[in-house]
Design brief:
Length: 209
Amino acid sequence: MWVFRGRTNGFQALAAFSAILLVSVLGPAAPAAGGTPSWPRGECATPSIDRLQQWLASGEGTTVPPTGNLLVRQGNRYAAKVVFEKAEWHVVTVWLGNQFDTQADLSGSAGFWLTYRASDDFYVQLRPASHWSGGDKWLTPVPSTNGKLVRKFFSFAPSAWTSLPELGTPPYSFESALREARGLVFVGKTPNTLDFRGLRIDGYQPPCL
């Protein structure tokens, strides 16, 4: 509770309250040039999106950039940006434990929220540690946003996931993939411009490296 004691103290208290209200509405101010960035609460000390530090162009398909980490500075946050250039399969990998030789048990998770923009439809695969390589994975469609930034929930209900005949039928169950999830892998066969801003998995917090 604010207690005003005299005209001067009253104006000082009112100014302080106004400053707090502006911060709550507008968010923290951008860091001064050369200063330490004000990272969103819970992010890693090094570049990350929702604590996920490895957003990788795998070199499969013609992409820009062709390989390496896709994270780029976006204000006081980071985005993962990539362009799929040709009518061929392209692959972008997100390691859930921020390193390859880790896995997460997502069997108790309801799904994940993806904040992104895309110029065309694509897919996301759930790849388990025991069957990492190859295209024969459980996947779910990710719709185009027509270039608009949207936030969409993707359920881990088995009925929401399928496979593509062109890539092959997974030789394991979707439930087993959830128990040993190593990564979410975004794939697409058409030219596409992708911009990822958020990926939050229900019940799971990635460990920062």
